[in-house]
Each structure stands twice: as C-alpha cells, then as structure tokens.
Amino acid sequence: MIKFIYENEGQLIAFIWGHFSNEKSMVNIELLYVEPQFRKLGIATQLKIALEKWAKTMNAKRISSTIHKSNLPMISLNKDLGYQVSHVKMYKDID
Predict the structure, then answer these.
(1) Which Pfam families does the record associate with it (predicted)?
(2) 87 falls in which pLDDT band (50, 70, 90)?
(3) Which structural domain, as residue segments, surrounds residue 41?
(4) How far apart are CA 84 and CA 3, in angstroms?
(5) I need a labelling partner for 54 at 20 to 30 A (CA). Which of 1, 41, 46, 61 fits?
(6) pTM of the shown model
(7) Which residues on neighbouring strands pair with residue 11, listed in sequence order?
(8) Considering the domain boundaries, does residue 66 fall inside one?
C-alpha cells in the first residue's frame, strides 16, 4: 500500500492511496481526494503521476481506478493521462 500526500503550510489538502497486486501486476487507486478550494490547480495530476512512478518501480503493468459517473473532472483527468474505460458497472434497486 502507498499513500502520497500534498500539504500546504503544514495542512493536508490532498492525498492519493493505492495498493499493488503482485498477482495481477497492477496498482489500484483506492482513493484520491483534493480539498475543494485547491481543485483545478494540478494537484490531482501531480499525485496520479507520483503514483504512476511508484507503480513502475513495483513493475506494475497497469493502474486501475474506479470513478463515479458524476465525477466528470476526474474522468476527464484520467482520459488526459491516458486511462481507458474498461468496465461499466450497473445496478438496479428492487423492492
């Protein structure tokens, strides 16, 4: 497991958390968060790039990330960084 954090004047404002699966040669991003007032400053990009560099040191062949369909800024960022859609998860509420 790895965490990268981003601080501003000693205050935590962003982080990314991921883990490496040796069996799949893959890093999964569990969570990425940036405080709202610090968004759109490239911080999420920096964190994802740092995690990608770490993934390479682990000899990972792939990075995966699950993003809610309403999180359009993160979907756009991932596409800009070369991520591709691989799955669509669907559900139905039943009574």
Answers:
(1) Acetyltransf_1
(2) confident
(3) 2-80
(4) 23
(5) 41
(6) 0.88
(7) 8
(8) yes
